[in-house]
Amino acid sequence: VVVYLNLHSFLFFHVLSLCLGYSPPGKPKLTSCRSPEKETFTCWWEPGSDGGLPTTYALYYRKENSDAVYECPDYHTAGENSCFFNKNDTSIWVNYNITVVATNALGSNFSDPVDVDVVYIVQPHTPENVTVTVMEDKDGPFLRVSWEPPRKADTRSGWITLIYELRVKLEGEEEWEEHRAGQQKMFNIFSLRSGGMYLVQVRCKPDHGFWSEWSSTTYIKVPDYFPRETSVWILIAVFSAFIFFILTWILNLKSNSVKHCLLPPVPGPKIKGFDKQLLKNGRSEEVFSALVVPGFPPTTSSDCEDLLVEYLEVYTPEEQELILEEGKDLQEGCLKSKGSPSDSDSGRGSCDSHTLLMEKCGEGEGKEEKHQERAQKGKRQQKHQTGWEEGDVSHTREDVLSPDMSEGRVKTWPSVFSPLPQYSSRPLDHQGSLETARHGLQLPGFRSTEYVEVQRVNQEDMVILQPLFSSSCQRDGHLQIGQGEDYSKVKGVDSGNMLLLQREVEVKREEEDGDRYSCDIQDRVTESCYTTSTAASSQVTGKPTSCAGTAMPVQEEMVLAANGYVDAATMLL
Amino acid sequence: MPENFRSVSAVWVGLVCLLFYSRLVRVGAAPICTNGQAGCHILSLADLFDRVIQHSARMHGISSDLHSEFEQYFFPSKNHIGRVNRICHTSTILTPNGKENAQRLAREELTEVILKLLVAWRDPLWHFQQSIAHHHDFNNFSSNKALEMSDMVHELRKGVEKVAEKMQMLGIISNSVNSLTSPEALIPSDRAEWRLMKDYVLLYCFRRDSNKVQNYLKILKCRIIPQHEC
């Protein structure tokens, strides 16, 4: 009966509870298990619904590979809904299988089991004794943060290894600056703001486990100081400004060369007398009229040297080739070179050359330079001489000095013409051997050419002539004037507009000159005789000495070139 | 102007080169030698301990990685893991499972335990690595890790033996540790046990054992050389 009554009351109670809305408890849930020092651990659970009835909870666990079930030894130390395992009950490296049971009058409910190995659930307490001090350094102040491990964690024996982390921020800021400190218990913070208030926190974690909570905030105020960085920056700024100035100065100095390098000058039009402004502003007539330069083309012989370039070439048809040849040679040089004695035209109008003959040898001496230079003259003389030695061509000049030459160049030599006939005519008169017709400026044809080079025309329209040395003295010593290799030196021009020619020349340099010597002497004698007077010409043939005598005094005054050239210009009287 | 620039830049380059060279020269490393030759930096016991501890930490890290990979790959549900019966082949080796227990052990015993564990894992890990290499389920990353793990066990054992030698030389421990070198003596039980272990269980067991080794080494070090980072 008692049993029946118990059962009956039990059932009655149950039915009553159910009618009243009570139910068995809901399923509890194990939320977490944690060990602060790897020696004890605590598990917490979350109760389910209690079903309206008072519910009790129990925690049961099983150790690895063992079927024995144990109940939680301590429900209270860790608080409500927790189970605390003390050192004796805790085994490391052992798998715990933990379950929580909720029980009320109507029933019980088991939670899902959880496997726990204490090694992997370690979460230490926060580090303790966090102290922050301001320390001074040569670079400025810095913070030294030091702390201690949580009391319970046994790092001394090596049972737990903790690594630390701290975070800093300025008061009022949002972002923390985090630093890992490893296993050390001290950390320095640099680069502080002067006068700032800093907040510091520290936390720790075992090598395999969870981070602890952040320690309580420590406040520290940094005193005011002048940051060295600023002074360094100032120094750098000054230094770079200095460098900059120096560079600018150098650039300024060498601005021209830099400009030249970067912006090479563009060659612009250079028309003399061309005024760009005028072109921009104005009318074309003005512009072009401005281009007209007075004195161009030169109508007066202001620079008579230029005129030396111009001369008339006269040649005979059979010599046209030679003329042409020479013409080409002559065209190579500049204008001035035309007047060089190597040109075919040289020697025209000389007092001693009767004809205006072309140098038939046709050396390419057009390249020779200004006849003013004596050294070159010497060379030319040499060349002429050699040229003539190669072959004398007898030129017969029959043509008048007329500009309308069919071939070759025609050059005019206007001012030269007038004095020439004087000179030209005389030797012809006296030389019976001279046969060919002479023209104004022409000398009769000779076997060899005789040249006188016109150096320049002076102000009074006088031709200053320079005789060219004759290279060969292979002639028969004919004293005929106009045998081409003979040159005389012009000693001077006397008052009667007569050309004084020198008799003697001391040629020291070349051996060839030795041959010439006698010839020259003779020629000179001849010429000097000419120049002095017409009458004296009769003396020419036979009496060099007499002529020499006349020539002598002047001779000393001569300005001699080593090759026997005379710069007749110097002897103008 | 270009000459100025050239000379100035040459001077700067020279200065910079000089700075670098001086820095390089200053940082010199002292040679390490083991026999106490003149001019060498002799490895101290503390250095040896640091090295083996680092080694064991790395070994444990790799084993943890592999274990979690396995868990993800083969056992997505956590609860399922709980029901697997994990029996490790090293459970026959008596190991202290608490701090007091570990501290109660003598140095020689602790060293012995470490060596036993390391020896016991050499073959299983080698076979595990072999099976992983042939398994197309695993990527190269895992197989590389397995290989590294197996090598590390070997290296770590040699390292610990060296430490033991050094300790014996210094008189810190007695000479009884030498007898541990032969694997047969350590595992008298059937070696076929570990062949039955599944890969997952193997990894689970090894992860734990590598943690034990690391911890024991730390305890040993702090007991013998307390002033050095303890």
From TrEMBL, chain A:
Residues 337-353 have a biased composition (Low complexity). Residues 333-393 are annotated as: Disordered. SMART domains: FN3 (SM00060). Residues 24-124, 126-225 form the Fibronectin type-III domain. This is a receptor for the anterior pituitary hormone prolactin. PANTHER family: CYTOKINE RECEPTOR, PROLACTIN RECEPTOR. This is Prolactin receptor.
